[in-house]
Every structure is written in structure tokens, then in C-alpha cells.
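ERR on first pass: missing label on line 2. Operator R.T. fixed the label and resubmitted. Corrected input:
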Amino acid sequence: MTSADHQPDTRDARQAWLFALPALLGLLFFVLLPFVLSLIISFTNLRLGSPLPLEFVGFRQYQRIFTDQAFLAALRNNALFALIVVPLQTGLAMLLALLINQPMRGMVIFRSLFFMPVVFPLSLVAVVWILVFAPGPQGLLNQVLETVTLGTWQARDFLHDPVWALPAISLTSIWQGVGFQMVILLAALQGIPRELYEAARVDGANRWQQFFCITLPQLRNAIIFVVLVTTILAFRLFDQVQIMTQGGPNHATTTVMYEAVSSAFGSQQVARAAAMTVVFFTIVLLITLLQRAVSRHDKVIE
Amino acid sequence: MIGTHTVIKLFVYLLLMGFAGMFLIPVAMMLFGSFKPDDQVLAQAGRLGHLLPAEFSWYNYRDVFARVPFARYLFNSAFISLCIVAGGLLVNSLAAYAFARLRWPGRDWMLMVVVALMIIPLEAIAVPLFYEVTLLGWRDTYWVQIIPFIANAFSIYLFYTFFLGLPRELEEAARIDGAGPWRIFFRIVMPNAKPVFATVAILNLLTQWGAFLWPLMVTHSEAVRPLPLGIATFYSLPPLQWGDIFAFGVMMVTPVLLIFVLFQHWFVQSVATTGVKG
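pass 2 clean. output:
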């Protein structure tokens, strides 16, 4: 801008600051400051109500959490949860989006139905699914599996079974969240220019060829985004664990956030919990950077 | 040719119905179970043939109110969510407008900081934030559940990209007529930015209505606790009565479900926006 229209600018600038100030202060005190604090605290021995003097202890908290069996189990569980949920949820979301995108009647109803669980609070979903996974005759899933396998299925207590507890939580999460991904993919799907398909049809491409040569490449960035969001969500896993299993049985479903909250509360070890959340943030950051790299790569190709 | 086409159509519908069943059954189990006597809920929970209650009874609903302060949880959730949504709409749209249209020193690098802050999830800062509000003496209040969540980097970003896309002509005309930035914002920008306001409101409402981790960390009295903690407490409150829990669940989800049914188009649009913009 030239200085000509800058005359009343100190007043303009002051007003602009007033516009931005409330939000900036909020972000400063409730996002940036805690973020910086979490880094600092993680290098101390901070503990609520502790008589010990506050001191810097270097990497001791990190050394401790990385030799703690529960925390290592938590990291493994988060990774495993991501490995189950990300492909299944993305794949299912894709399938649903493709089905709904068919030019047929009633698709709006199906879209609403599949999206509906997204508005359900996770805590409620977790409680309801406890009954779905119940052992014995009350358990819907056990009953369905028994019917489907013609009685050969051995009813089990999914949420108290070290092998099945995490997959059970995964299923709950997918049920609640898949509609979110579906809607994003559906929007991307509807954004693909129709001419591309018409041209392909003229060239004699069949449905599968159209899907792999047009649909998938066109959806690439949307899929990358959905995968990123789902992966990050997988590492944030907390509500379902707290309600359905409390991290059990024997750390089979504990997660990084569950361990962090337990440390901050159970033993008031704020520094230890902070170190865990720093590890959590590092993972989120790496996933985000990976997504950026992959997306940028895509632009270069174009 | 028409034959294969019809077969494909039929196949698509069958698939969709199958999936619809999977999405509906747990919801139906909750809804119908909430009207059943408690012994029937458990006895019939595993049987799809017995989803419907033999007779509808409001007993469980009355029981919820007798056993827990449901109305209090509901008010708390509504109050907290509304304060965050309303406060957030105002504060974040104003900031976004300053970033998109006004000129002030520091604007560009601060915008970069705001965009960078978007990737910090609440979970990453929950522990120091918990420590911070403890020092402030804010624990177990309403405002500890409201104030930290009003300013929101992602909301600012959504507003910002929308404002950038608005044509400048109307604002310029108003400026020439002597209107200041406040008047321009409230009289011209806001009425033309309804979609983004709806998007931000819906996304924040969904997040806040389900908020669990933070309230669990910073509250302990029923007086300020929201619904998600209410249902978790109720579930762990003996005796375990599934009819009651389902009634609680139905009442807990009905407000958002109603809003969803009424503003369905906006919900779908909002979520789709996160994908496009992200």
C-alpha cells in the first residue's frame, strides 16, 4: 500500500488490533503458553502438592516413560489401533461414498443414516457398545456371530479379552466416525468433472478402469487428508478407553492419552504426563509433515 | 442391458440396506430399550427379533431424573456449548476479518502462527493447561470449560479463507460512504457470510456437546459437569440398569439429533468443508 491511503492508518491499525486481540489473547494463553509450558515442564520434576523443590531434571522423565511397560504398551496400542482403524474406516467410508454417489433414489436418506452416529457423543456410543460386546446371551455381537456361524462361535467377553478388547474399541470408533470421512470423500467425488468419465467411456474404459484411472487419482488429496485425520484421531484415543476398559485388561487397551491423564491424576505427576503429551505431539507433527510432503509431491506431478 | 442395470441397482440397494442395518441397530437397541422394563432390556439385548418393546413405558425416563441430576447435566452442556459457540463465532470471525481485510503491523507473521497452532490438538496441551487453570484457581467451574475454547485457530482459518473469497466491492462502497470497520463487519460482512458462520457453529457444537477429556480433568462436582461425564458416572453407578442408561442416552442425543435433522444440509456441508480446506 502506498502512503497516500495510509493517512488514517494508526487509527485503522488500532481498530484492527481490537478486532484480533480477544482471539489472539485466547490463543496465547490457552494454546501457545500451555504448549511451551508442556515442553518446559517435561524437563522438570513438577508434581502437584509435592514437597520437593522444583528442579530441572533433563531427560529423566523421558527416560522413565520409555522404560515404562504401560507407556510402551500404550504406544503399541495406539499404533495398532491406527493400523486397524485407518484402512478399515477409510475403505468403508470410500465404499459408502461410492454407493451413495450412484444416481439413484433415496441416497439422501442413506447419507443421513450413515452420518448420524457422528453427532452421537463418543461417551454415549462407548456405553451403548459395552452392551453390544457383552458376553453371554445379552451380547448382541456374540449372538449374531453365533447365528452366522451356525452355533460354532464360542461366546467371549470381548472387552475383557486381551486379544479382542482393542479390536472391539476399534469397531466402536469406526461405527461412530465413518460418516465423517464418507461425507468428505463424497464431496470430493462430486467435485470430479464429468467430462473425464465421458472421455474415458469414449475411449472404451470399463467401470474398473474408470475407477482406478480417474476416480482414485482425482480423490488423491481427499484420501490423504482423510487418512491423516483418522491417524491423528487414532493417537488421540481416550474417551472409549476410559469408559469401556480403563486401559485393561492388563494394559491391552491403554493409550498414550490414557497414561498421560492417569499420571496427571492418579499420582499428580504433571511433569511425567507432560513428557507423554510431548511424545504425543511429536507423533502428530510427524504425521502432519508426512501428509504435507505427500501432498506437495502430488502438486509437483501435476 | 436394462436387465444388468436393474441387477446392479438392486445389488447397490441391498448393500446399502445392509449397512443401514449396522448403523441403525445399536441406535434402535438404545431407543427401544429405553422404553422396556429393565429385566427385558438385558434378556432381549442379544435378540434382533425382540428389538421392539412389548409395551412402551416411561418408567426408565422418570428413573433417570430420580437417580441423577439429569436436568443439571443438560443445562450445563447446553450452557457451556452455547457460550463457546456464540463467543467463538464473534471472537474468531473478528480476528479472521482483521487478518483478511485490515492492515496492521505484525499481521502476516501472526497469521502464520495461527495457522501453525491449528495442528496442536487439545490433548497435546491438556496437562499444562490443567496445571495453568489449577494455578488460576479455576477448577470445577463453568468458565474453565468455556474460556480456553473460545479462541480457536481452526475457526479463524475457516473464517479467514471465506472472507478472502468475498467480493470487496460492497465493503469498498460502504467505506467510501464513511462506514468504519465495525459497521462494515456487522452490517455487510456478517450477513454475507452465513455459510461459514453455520459451519463453524456446527463443528464447534459437535465437539463441545461431546467434550469428555477436559471436563473429566478439571471438574469433580455434578453442579458443573456436562452430559458426557453424566453418562459415564451413571454407567458406573450401581445398580447397573440398562433401561435407565438408554433413557439417559436418548435424552442426551436428542437435542443434537434434532439440530442435525433440521440443519442436515449444513452439517454435511460443514464436514465437507473441513476436507476441502484442510
